[in-house]
UniProtKB/TrEMBL annotation:
Coiled coil: none
GO molecular function annotations of the record: glycosyltransferase activity
Membrane-crossing residue ranges in chain numbering: none
Membrane topology listed for this record: Single-pass type II membrane protein
PANTHER family: O-FUCOSYLTRANSFERASE 13 (PTHR31741:SF2), OS02G0726500 PROTEIN-RELATED (PTHR31741)
GO cellular component terms listed in the entry, alphabetical order: cytoplasm; membrane
The protein's name: O-fucosyltransferase family protein
Family: Belongs to the glycosyltransferase GT106 family.
Annotated organism of origin: Sorghum bicolor (Sorghum)
A Pfam family the protein falls into: O-FucT
Cellular localization per UniProt: Membrane
Source organism superkingdom: Eukaryota
Pathway: Glycan metabolism
């Protein structure tokens, strides 16, 4: 039995046993005259569904996402001609780098260009110099993209001494056509570096470009040997089964959200103030309320603990915190869920000290992709990659918490048991309908169960 299945079985028992023992007692107590027994139970609305468990993962799903079949075999159409060489330049943290790289793979094939290994330009914030090869397995990438897009490890002599012509699409807004706007520069210079656009619609691309994107992003990227073995070591150190939780409540995150919070410690408030730059002023009044109700405010650790309890995730669950070191108000979570594991608690001290931000992010990524269950409190770049990669592996215990619904119900005055019930209903619905657990993009298809 897999750890996940064992976990499930164990929980089914945990819920079945008490109800089996209680059933005759309840029946005796409630039988005369004859209201349906569950109406008189305490905790209105928290009745057991037929499966016998209120644990979120025990709910029967109606739909799940799987990788679509059409892109799993290389497109037969080879490029009609080669238009030049493209290096994809990626900026930011690991998951943002990866998102840009994924887009770039699709664009390279769209333009019938040969890809040079991407350049990872790490933001100063991360203080490091990890290149593509420092994180990912280069040979595997080349092998897995064969037939989709041509990738070269070393520059051919004729361009080896040249600097590529820079094409920066990162600030481009709205839909634009890469063939129209980038191909001319590629043809003219023969070697360009490209920073892909942030929010480009990829669904209009021809299928060979889409297939390259899907294959390159979801089947060709794996951690290199060194990072992988560190990640495996970490994974093995975590007691099983476990849930990986991506908490986001760092000062910069909160400052950036422009949301107001009450009840935070003065230490947290100071850190948030320190992270607040120009243009990040706290919203007030109606604007603040609307913003919060649109789900723009990060969940606090204690709100997260509340929702996890509403989903009946036992408080003795082993939880790996996939997060940086800067989380605030963590006691709000750890006072409820006590079996918490982190990188810094599990890895040897000097190992951890010597690690770059991207390597740390790669560990969180790996552990989260391989955990029994994954819950995200936000839907950022990491969550998009993790949920998609879990979907690739058929790991379905994946959930993104709804900040919008939490805010909305809280604003409507719900609290305590009522709020818990509302959170349960909303997330159960999301879970069984397979929403929010995979990228709703063309690489994945809905599958009715
Ligand atoms: C790329 O090659 C395909 C054939 O695979 C062809 O249909 C398309 O027009 C080419 N695009 C460019 C920009 O050269
Ligand atoms: C960046 O990393 C180097 C070592 O890799 C270290 O000496 C330096 O203090 C770090 N800078 C910051 C701002 O963290
Ligand atoms: C907020 O909740 C109300 C019910 O309390 C519902 O009618 C409305 O659609 C919700 N809005 C959003 C954005 O979820």
């Amino acid at each position: 039995m897999s750890p996940a299945a064992a976990w499930c079985a164990q929980h089914r028992l945990r819920f079945l046993l008490p109800s089996l023992f209680l059933a005759p007692v309840l029946f005796f107590l409630l039988s005369p005259p004859s209201p349906p027994p569950f109406v008189s139970l305490p905790a209105p609305g928290r009745e057991l569904p037929p499966s016998g468990s209120r644990l979120i993962w025990a709910q029967r799903r109606l739909v799940e996402w799987r990788p679509c079949g059409w892109w799993r075999t290389a497109p037969v159409q080879a490029p009609s001609r080669r238009n030049g060489y493209i290096r994809i330049d990626c900026y930011g943290g690991l998951n943002q780098l990866r998102r840009d790289l994924c887009d770039g793979i699709g664009v390279a094939r769209l333009l019938n260009a040969t890809m040079i290994l991407p350049k990872f330009e790490v933001a100063a914030y991360w203080n490091e110099s990890s290149g593509f090869a420092d994180v990912f397995d280069v040979d595997y990438f080349i092998e897995q993209t064969r037939g989709y897009v041509e990738v070269m490890k070393d520059l051919p002599v004729e361009i080896a001494s040249k600097e590529p012509f820079k094409v920066d699409c990162s600030k481009r807004k709205g839909h634009f056509d890469y063939v129209e706007s980038v191909l001319p520069a590629l043809l003219e210079h023969q070697y360009i570096s490209l920073t892909p656009a942030m929010n480009q619609r990829r669904d209009r691309n021809p299928s060979y470009a889409k297939a390259s994107y899907c294959q390159g992003c979801y089947s060709a990227l794996r951690l290199n040997k060194k990072v992988h073995s560190k990640a495996v070591e970490l994974l093995q150190a975590i007691p099983k089964p476990f849930l990986s939780l991506h908490l986001r409540f760092e000062p910069d995150m909160v400052a950036y959200s422009r949301c107001a919070y009450t009840g935070l410690s003065s230490k947290s408030m100071d850190s948030i103030e320190a992270a607040r730059g120009e243009g990040r002023k706290v919203l007030t009044g109606d604007a603040a309320r609307l913003w919060r109700n649109r789900g723009k405010c990060p969940l606090t650790p204690s709100e997260t603990a509340f929702i996890l309890q509403a989903l009946d995730i036992p408080t003795n669950t082993n939880i790996y915190l996939a997060a940086g070191d800067g989380l605030m108000e963590l006691e709000g979570f750890t006072s409820v869920y006590k079996n918490i594991y982190t990188k810094s608690s599990l890895l040897a001290h000097e190992d951890f000290e010597n690690m770059h931000g991207n390597t740390k992010a790669a560990l969180d990524y790996y552990v989260s992709v391989n955990s029994d269950a994954y819950i995200a409190t936000f839907f950022g770049n990491m969550d998009k990659m993790v949920t998609a990669m879990r979907t690739m592996q058929g790991l379905q215990k994946t959930l993104v918490l709804s900040r919008r619904d939490f805010a909305n119900y809280t604003a409507a005055g719900l609290a305590g048991e009522q709020l818990a019930k509302a959170m349960w209903d909303v997330h159960r619905e999301e879970y069984i309908r397979g929403r929010g657990s995979a990228l709703p993009e063309y690489c994945f298809c809905e599958f009715k169960l």
